Amino acid sequence: MQPLTGLKVIDLTQVLSGPYCTMVLGDMGAEVIKVEKFPSGDDTRRIGGFEDNYNFNMVNRNKKGLQVNLTMEKGREIIYRLVEKADVFIENFRPGVAKKLGVDYETLKKHNSQLIYCSISGYGQTGPYCQKGGYDIMAQGMSGIMSMTGETDGRPVKVGIALHDTAAAVTALYHILLAYIYKLKSGEGQYIDISLVESGLAWTVWEAASLFSKGEIAEPNGTRHRMIAPYQGFRTKNGYILVGAANQKLWELFCKHVVEKEEWITDPRFITGNDRVQNVNELEHLIEDVFSEETSEIWLQKLESVGIPCGPIHTYAEALQNKQILSREMVIEGKHPRGGMMKMLGFPGKMSKTPAQLRSPAPLLGQHNDEILKELHYSEAEIRQLKEESII
Amino acid sequence: MQPLTGLKVIDLTQVLSGPYCTMVLGDMGAEVIKVEKFPSGDDTRRIGGFEDNYNFNMVNRNKKGLQVNLTMEKGREIIYRLVEKADVFIENFRPGVAKKLGVDYETLKKHNSQLIYCSISGYGQTGPYCQKGGYDIMAQGMSGIMSMTGETDGRPVKVGIALHDTAAAVTALYHILLAYIYKLKSGEGQYIDISLVESGLAWTVWEAASLFSKGEIAEPNGTRHRMIAPYQGFRTKNGYILVGAANQKLWELFCKHVVEKEEWITDPRFITGNDRVQNVNELEHLIEDVFSEETSEIWLQKLESVGIPCGPIHTYAEALQNKQILSREMVIEGKHPRGGMMKMLGFPGKMSKTPAQLRSPAPLLGQHNDEILKELHYSEAEIRQLKEESII
Q: What CATH number is given to the structural domain containing A257?
């Protein structure tokens, strides 16, 4: 048994935030029915120009696929029948669209009063911006996270991953689990409202502390720490590495045994931690002059040998070939019905009794139509009729 | 009743990843006992140089404070008594330290066979790197996320927030909830192993899809989208804004009604979406020439009036003054026993029946020592004795 064995999830989400959330529910044992719009399905099926593409398959494993035309009454009827037996319903339409389609909380609650209903949107279901469409990049701009990422005095840069999409995914996920725990105890369902902007914003705790306590606005500063130096990325002969000489003892070890510049310890620019922060531009310059003479591998060995926190700045390809990451099964393989074997990212949490499991690949569009409708007691004739009417 | 009312959590974590996780457990009703080391407490109490500082108070609300000297047998005895009545134990020591202190899973399981025990570490509890200390910045370098963030051909830059710390926090959180659900159903506890590196790495799904399917390595490109242009940040007269003209129709609207440069539509450099991606440097230059004539506010109005996705790039101060963010109660206030009223970030999930609640401020160091020990049936004389022996 997995933790969510027996949990039934009706998933009307697409692209990344919702699908990532329901993927984890599926990884942990839930029965997830992914409902895709007729005729084109999840927009992600089209990224890159072919139907069953890699992006889609990465975040839709462990789900069954149902394709339904929600603009037709008979299509909605399928959803209502599904909802009667479900625990969780999740959607990431622009606010208002679920109501237009007849699959909003007020409507579905009539079909299942114990339903847990989760909405994911750019800005949330209330407030002056709630009708705006919101994508990950706009959320990065709204939350201020983009403005604190980048080079000092440089242009703003985005976080390299879809930060707010994944933040919304896991925020929706843990709220659904909380609501399920409450339902197990009380028998009651409820409505959950998750936004991309707030999900990422909630993680800016250090930055909020600085703003609220001292009025300091977090600004970009490359890879540098705001209060410690040297604690940042440095260029070497063949790339960049991270060095964190976080206190006076480590700084002196660094001067003596890593760069072999004992004179820096008594250099008036670098005497105290605060001096080094004030003169970090010069310090960076001097360190990179020395670091340019050897490769990253050699500097990391020297740093490790004297116990100074350090690490590589992997390219993404290096990250996924790293022996630690591979030993932790962060790259797994599964069979896809069309593509053959495909690689996927593994599971980030290791549970001793109830590990996440790859039970099935992502569904083809409408792959489980017949199976799901039969479970809902549609007859073969009715199913044929639904197909003829372009409902499924 | 809140979802986690009745859940007892013994929290031996410090700094950010663990405390953020247990803060959310507390926000949702759990009884969290934060155990801090004798004599100095959570390292975060010292950031900025004074004991009860803002960073600490931001992520430790809704917890009780117990201070214990874990290097002494009598200190460990307190933990064992706490664990007997607890559901969850969580720690973020470097792997191996919990065992040295006598609070590892094998030991605590003997005191409570149903315990859910969660460890958070930099690289995980297994594998060739497991003994290394890992901080957020090293995790950003390891996972490859740093290498895909920044300007094209620029230096790597870090994500502006402690991405891997918060990733580990919410990954630990949802696994603890999963284990609790399993415990509610089966009566069994288990061990959970969470790493900073993997928690963030698990979110690189689009980047992994590109690597696995096409061998493409995600690289930094400022704020630009890899497959669409113009879809990025642009400089205006007084700052930067985001524009997402994601298809041909939006591009033509942009040319005609926003920048009023209809000739760009037929410019051979910008005919198709692919042309615009190929010539994005020139396109950015031309657009910024026009955008430099007016303020961000005016450009955003024009873009919105024709329905082109767009948004501001807020400074962090602007983000926390934004009317949408304030209307969603993302800035809340609570009373701290020493500091008076203090602002905090609000709750990112809105649950209709069981909302998160601010029940108490962060504890002072050892604030609930007496209360907690009395509940464990220590007598007043024993408590006095423990204080004399510097155990609490």
A: 3.30.1540.10
CB of A381 within 8 Å of any CB in chain B? Answer: no
Is residue A49's pLDDT more than 90?
Answer: no
pLDDT value at residue A368? 97
A306 in contact with chain B, both atoms CB, cutoff 8 A: no
User: B197 and B60 share a domain?
Assistant: yes
Does pLDDT of B283 surpass 70?
yes
Say yes or no to pLDDT of A48 above 70: no
Judge whether A315 and B147 are in contact, CB under 8 Å: yes
Same domain membership, residue A171 and residue A107: yes
Residues A46 and A191 in one domain: yes
Question: Domain boundary at A313, A344, A373, which?
Answer: A313
Distance, in Å, from the CA atom of A291 to the CA atom of A234, rounded to the nearest integer, reads 8
Is some CB atom of chain B closer than 8 A to the CB atom of A107? no
Taken in order A290, A294, A295, A297, the sign of the CA dihedral is: negative
Residues A243 and A94 in one domain: no
A345 shares a domain with A288:
no
ipTM comes to 0.97
Q: Is the dihedral of CA B136, B142, B145, B151 positive or negative?
A: positive
Asked if residue A8 lies in contact with residue A31, where contact means CB atoms within 8 angstroms, the answer is yes
Is any Cβ of chain B less than 8 angstroms from the Cβ of A349?
Answer: yes
Q: Which positions 67-96 of B are in contact with A (Cβ < 8 Å)? A: none
CA of B25: which chain A residue's CA is closest? A178
Catalytic residue flag (residue A165): yes
Secondary structure of A187-245 as H, E, C letters: CCCEEEEEEHHHHHHCCCHHHHHHHHHHCCCCCCCCCCCCCCCCEEEEECCCCEEEEEC
Query: Is residue B219 situated within a structural domain?
Result: no
Task: Supply the pLDDT for residue B41.
Answer: 93
pLDDT tens digit string along B137-161?
999 999 999 999 999 989 999 999 9
Which residues have a Cβ under 8 Å from the Cβ of A361 and sit 6 or more positions away?
A57, A61, A334, A335, A336, A337, A342
Q: What domain range includes position B109?
A: 8-203+329-388
> B209 phi and psi, to 5 degrees?
-60, -45
A106 and A197 inside one domain:
yes
CA gap A110, A305 in Å, rounded:
66
> What number is the average pLDDT over the span B231-236?
96
| DSSP letters spanning A257-319 | IIS--THHHH-TTSSSHHHHHHTHHHHHHHHHHHHTTS-HHHHHHHHHHTT--EEE---HHHH
Residues B21, B97 share a domain: yes
User: What number is the average pLDDT over the span B237-260?
Assistant: 95
Instruction: Please identify every residue of B annotated as catalytic.
Output: 165
Tens-place pLDDT, residues A100-147? 999 999 999 999 999 999 999 999 999 999 988 788 999 999 999 999
Residues A126, B328: C-beta atoms closer than 8 Å: yes
- Using CA atoms, how far apart are residues A265 and A269, in angstroms rounded to an integer? 9
Window B:156-215, CB contacts with A under 8 Å: 156-163, 166, 170-175, 177-182, 184-186, 188, 190-195, 197-199, 201-213
